[in-house]
């Protein structure tokens, strides 16, 4: 059986399950001492064998493979069995793993005769028979706690049947063991991605990235549109300012045409001076009278003589009237306290 092409959703799930160890049935060796585990009777294709004990007792377990898949493949997950070695040989406690069901069966190919310490044997191992015998020897041990975890599954070689998967090394295993994260083939070939799976994953990643970028661009466009709608157009603001300034200048020119004399004599300070105050009978009722342009002058009452220069002199510069009630300007004009009589 070969892995067929997958869709986007199954491709992503397929990719994730490579790194996920599925639940396996667990057998606790310290509770099964001197007993057998039958994979056929228990209806399993793979399992985890755990040994954890502080007892100073020997223990052995025999695993019998399936009749239709008689060989057993296994590897060590973790191991902590004593620290003592003598001349590179294990003292107690120690472990022996044999290829067969009898005590005299040979050691599994590739493993040392005795296993101990905290460093687990690397690699994947297999039996040449239908039985795997695991012996724990605790004689004379002072080890308080030991631990061991082994994952095993059954397989056979030859032509695989329906419902089975052909590994890269020629092993036939049950379909349900494929891509569960515990390497049932022994060479990681149970989860090699086909061309279709790789294409599906690449397309899924590219499509997801494209959708993400499109959402970001659309978001910023909406934000920019809202900002543009919340402020008036630049031309409208400019037109209002220009219209206001033009209207003000027009009113000012109209005022100049009505009220201001272009032929006023200029003093040495550039200040236009009248030859004399207006008749008092008018009492500044003329709308073009100087007093009407000085906002700070509220009302004046005069007697026979005009007021002092410090009040009377008002200057016009650039069509805007100012009160030069300043000593430095008045002193420069060379006048006395009052203007001469009108006579």
UniProtKB/TrEMBL annotation:
InterPro entries referenced in this protein's UniProt entry, alphabetically: CUB_dom (IPR000859), LDL_receptor-like_sf (IPR036055), LDrepeatLR_classA_rpt (IPR002172), LRAD2/Mig-13-like (IPR042333), Sperma_CUB_dom_sf (IPR035914)
UniProt entry tagged with the keyword Transit peptide: no
Domain CUB: residue ranges: 33-159
TM helices/strands, residue ranges: 193-220
Keywords: Disulfide bond, Membrane, Transmembrane, Transmembrane helix
Cystine pairs: 160-172, 167-185
PANTHER family named among the record's database cross-references: LOW-DENSITY LIPOPROTEIN RECEPTOR CLASS A DOMAIN-CONTAINING PROTEIN 2
Protein's recorded name: CUB domain-containing protein
Species, as recorded: Sinanodonta woodiana
Lineage: Eukaryota, Metazoa, Spiralia, Lophotrochozoa, Mollusca
